[in-house]
Input
Amino acid sequence: MPPPRPAPFSLVDEIARHCAQEAEPETVHVEVHLPGRVDRPRLRAAFGRALARHPRALLRQAPVRWWHPRYVWEPAGSPDTAPVSFSGRDPGSLRRAREQALAECPRLDAGPPVRLAVTEQATRTGTGNTGTGTVLLLTAHHTALDAPSCLRLLATTAELYGGAANSPAPPPVRAPEPTVRRARRNGASPVSTALRRPARIAADRAGATPGNGMLLTQLPVPARPPRAPEAAGPAHTVNDQLLLAVFLMVTRWNHLHRTRAAPVVLTMPVDDRPRGTGMPLGNGTRLVPVCFGPADLRDAAPAAASGPPGPAAIARLLRRTAARTRALKATPGRPLGLAGAVLTAPVLPVGVRAAVTRRARAAAAPWTSTALLSNIGRVPYPFDFGDGGRATGVWFSAPARMPRGLSLATVSTGDRIQLTLRWSRALLDDAAGGALCALFEESLAATSWSGA
Output
């Protein structure tokens, strides 16, 4: 692989850099839980070699002045700061590492823009005995890397540490995506919210505390109808069920807080990159809006009033959601649309573009989506760390800055979904975050096929 050269920030990198703020850092948090202990020097060396194998993770921001035409990534060659830290079986070490992941971004002007905190945690084996496991908690600056990039970096670390291949599993065989035109004929054209502001999550907090809160949990994968032999594919995916569950959660939460019903718009990242060792690291997803409009609100009305809607309403909601997501995924588009391309055109100096971008973001705040759902799906890597064992759980979280203030991130391992709910403390306190998570769990269960 040729050595990296200085390269200008991508569109997504530049927008993230313009809008960075200390109150709610744009961090990506990834946790990999292992059943055993790891050798510290060997893990530190493996992570360093993984960084060298993925030079995009070793870039740093070159010095910049307001009059420069671009922000530029420059190769660091080797880490400017020690990226790996270790802590023992202190019960509070994992909590502190999570708090740091939400509160402190790695620096952009010193490579790498990631840090790895390794903590030992007590685990319980199947026989009831207590052992010692390990949690690898990786924090990345979202201006530089996204969650799939972080997982790829940790998969390479596992391969170099354990000596076993950590190649990604083959993607599932999916039915051909129907065209946008066919989806619209079936009455599932994308819902326009241009004339109505999207719903906001009703605020519920005891006080104004800066930063983000976070909750990690595991849920069963909701059942889907069995694939009929003559069918081209399932009517919907687990991702569609997750999107519908977020919609039902929002409508129920806002009804309980006596907030007027409004269309719900969910931001969904779409990532088409390969997961092998040649995967391009960085910010490689495009964000698409999944809109739930008046027809969906009518079907969800029973959920808002007293509980989940009936099976017939759930079936209609799932059909419409599946048709929308298929159409959105099949339609190419810019990562942040035309507006993002205009704001990052190098016509004006970066200092001027930064001021314009921040003002544009503030003006567009009322039309920001209701929540973000980032679903990576089945974990593609075994994360086999040799004597440390294979991963027993993987979680990640995406930023949750205001005005959206809420992100949900999911991966699945086996028959479980690892969910991370992350919120702005300007919107929710910890008790409210827990209550919202309980509503999501109830809503996801309502989407599960019962066999009726």
User: Anything to note?
Assistant: The radius of gyration is 22 Å. Residues 173-189 have pLDDT under 50 and may be disordered. The chain is about 30% helix and 20% strand.
